[in-house]
Amino acid sequence: MPDARTPHVALITGASSGIGEELAKCFAQAGHDLVLVARSADKLKALASDLASAHGVKAWVEPADLSQPAAASVLAARLKRQRRTVDVLVNCAGVLSHGPFATMPAATAQGMIDLNISGLTAMLNAFLPGMVKRGSGRVMNVASIASFQPVPALATYAATKAYVLSLTESLSEELKGSGVTITALCPGVTATHMLTQAMAADASLAKLPGVLVGSAADVAKQGFKACMKGQVICVPGVANQATVLASRSTPKWAVRLLGGWLGRRAM
Ligand SMILES: NC(=O)c1ccc[n+]([C@@H]2O[C@H](COP(=O)([O-])OP(=O)(O)OC[C@H]3O[C@@H](n4cnc5c(N)ncnc54)[C@H](OP(=O)(O)O)[C@@H]3O)[C@@H](O)[C@H]2O)c1
User: Fold this and answer.
1) Which of 89, 100, 142, 151 is 20 to 30 Å apart from 165, CA to CA?
2) How far is the CA of 69 from the centre of ligand 1 (A)?
3) Taking the alpha carbons of 38, 41, 46, 50 in that order, is the dihedral positive or negative?
4) Which atom of ligand 1 is found nearest the CA of 66?
5) pLDDT tens-digit map of 178-232
6) C-alpha distances in angstroms, 130 versus 86, 87, 89, 122?
7) Structural domain boundaries of the chain?
8) For residue range 106-127, what is the model confidence (pLDDT) as tens digits?
9) Is 192 near ligand 1, meaning CB less than 6 Å away?
10) Does ligand 1 come within 6 angstroms of the Cβ of 190?
11) Pocket of ligand 1 contains residue 236 by CB under 6 Å
């Protein structure tokens, strides 16, 4: 069980697969009770039952489509009625669509904005004020290394993740001294359902050397540690850290040119 100072109930969005599922395992292993959120109720129920029996924690399933405008407030109201306080909020749910912006259906780009930006912001609106009032809490937003530079062929996705990083960095300063910390987890390419889907649209991704593809379990372990420590930015993996360092210390125009050259090869 977490000690008396450790935030107890962790709400994890996108917990039905990939990085979110692995994060749920990390929190359960550390003794946190869980609220698991995604659309796939059956997958969430199976995970909840596995984690409850493996770690002796409680795990509640709250199926929701977080791209819908009212989803976060409806969820928060339900949890309030059940007298469940959320001590840790992990915003991991996200979608990616690959391809040139000019030929991408507007609804596809909007779908990324609705979940990756609006859904995430609505979850913060729903749960952050309570944490600040109580003077304790942890938040983790899952961004990406795509947050750090423009990425042609992933233009809207990268822009949504830049939003997540920027929002998190601003809030980390606003929250100083409040007892609440906020972390942006910025994974590089990670072997999940999202990567399988992206590879179907961009065959060049299949040629990525294995060392550049992280495992969801490793990414989650590093994210969990960073979140508990209150670290503002966590970039898992040495190669990803080098990429981020290079893109942050190189003039924007050069990063854009290199990103453009690589991106055009993938379109
Ligand atoms: N894989 C990578 O290379 C990579 C790299 C950097 C960052 N990331 C980020 O990591 C996060 C997790 O992605 P992943 O790689 O683990 O992919 P994933 O396995 O496809 O997981 C995505 C999760 O989001 C949930 N989700 C999708 N649409 C939703 C909606 N409308 N409402 C609620 N939940 C929804 C999915 O569950 P349901 O389908 O059941 O709703 C699933 O649990 C994302 O934010 C992604 O952008 C991934």
Assistant:
1) 100
2) 18
3) positive
4) 32
5) 999 999 999 999 999 999 988 888 777 777 888 889 999 999 999 999 999 999 9
6) 8, 9, 11, 14
7) 9-266
8) 999 999 999 999 999 999 999 9
9) yes
10) yes
11) no
- CA 254 / ligand 1 centre spacing (Å): 30
What percent of the chain lies above the pLDDT cut of 70?
Answer: 96
* Interacting residues of 63 by C-beta distance below 8 A, sequence separation 6+: 37, 38, 39, 40, 41, 44
Q: What is the residue-averaged pLDDT of the chain?
A: 93
User: Hey, what CATH topology would domain 9-266 get?
Assistant: Rossmann fold (3.40.50)
What's the one-letter identity of residue 166?
A: S
The pLDDT tens digits for 132-184 are 999 999 999 999 999 998 899 999 999 999 999 999 999 999 999 999 999 99
Query: pTM (2 decimals)?
Result: 0.95
**Known catalytic residue at 157:** yes
Q: How many CA atoms lie within 13 A of 165 on its CB side?
A: 20
Residue of 11, 16, 66, 147 to mutate, ligand 1, most atoms within 8 A of C-beta: 16
User: According to the model, what pLDDT value does residue 256 have?
Assistant: 87
Distance separating alpha carbons of residues 5 and 230, to the nearest angstrom: 14
Tell me if 65 CB under 6 Å of ligand 1. yes
Which atom from ligand 1 is nearest to the alpha carbon of 15? 43
- What span, in angstroms and rounded, lies between the C-alpha atoms of 217 and 74? 30
